[in-house]
Amino acid sequence: MEVINSLWVLIKYTFLGLIQGFTEPIPISSSGHLVILRELFGVTEVTGLSFEILVNFGSLIAVLVIYRKDIYRLVENGVRYISTKDNAAKSDFQFILFLIIATIPTGILGVLFEDYIEEELSTVSVIGYTLLITGLALWIIRNLRGNKNDGDITIKDAIIVGLAQSVALIPGISRSGATIVAAMLVGMKSETALRFSFLLYIPVSLGITVMSAGEILGDDNISVLAIPYILAFAASLVASYYSLRWFMNVMARGNLKYFAFYCFIVGILVILFL
């Protein structure tokens, strides 16, 4: 019986890692899905932030791998512009500044409202309605085709996208969905919106991971759940990589309406039955 229970724990954690990893890049809210699955399967032991931080770190690594060329180019040109004021590198330097600006609202609001969000808004009933909001936002921009490239982004655009990312602190509001919706509403091309959204994910996710390292190390369950945590981390990394690759193709074809339909259906089911 103990072997069966141990195997079931491994399966649950791996499954949750896969779901989080798959849903993180696409606009249907990974945090919302984790709360729903915990409710459905009665996974009461996965309640601490350590688990969420680890699986999100897996997603972060996947994003770093996929956008490694963009990151290298931005860093190289950013340093070149600072040292030589080469105008050819100016747009990439500004892109970095806009990412920093867009990160600030999330950092401030995250610190101020982290406890309130975790205690009051991380419930299944709230998530049903926030999924409907995510679906509505995706439906509104389903046919938008912007004309702004990386070099056309403004400080105002960065602030708007940053504020949208802050709203996504609420479970059920997709981070990628909120930032992509905001980016396309201010006129970015789908490719630019996608790149800005996921490069913006890097400093936020990295900051959360670094700031929460102490909590992970001090987790009372870390010694007992080390293997399940590692499996969940690996599952999240792999699932995030392939999910983001797939989502990039979906964005290129402009098929965001299907994610809106999904959010509507799941949101209504959650409200009615959970």
From TrEMBL:
GO terms for biological process: cell wall organization; peptidoglycan biosynthetic process; regulation of cell shape; response to antibiotic. This is Undecaprenyl-diphosphatase. InterPro entries: UppP. It comes from Virgibacillus salinus. Its main location: membrane. Bacitracin is thought to be involved in the inhibition of peptidoglycan synthesis by sequestering undecaprenyl diphosphate, thereby reducing the pool of lipid carrier available. The lineage of its organism: Bacteria, Bacillati, Bacillota, Bacilli, Bacillales. The gene is uppP. It is a multi-pass membrane protein. Keywords: Antibiotic resistance, Cell membrane, Cell shape, Cell wall biogenesis/degradation, Hydrolase, Membrane, Peptidoglycan synthesis, Transmembrane, Transmembrane helix. Pfam families: BacA. The keyword Membrane applies.
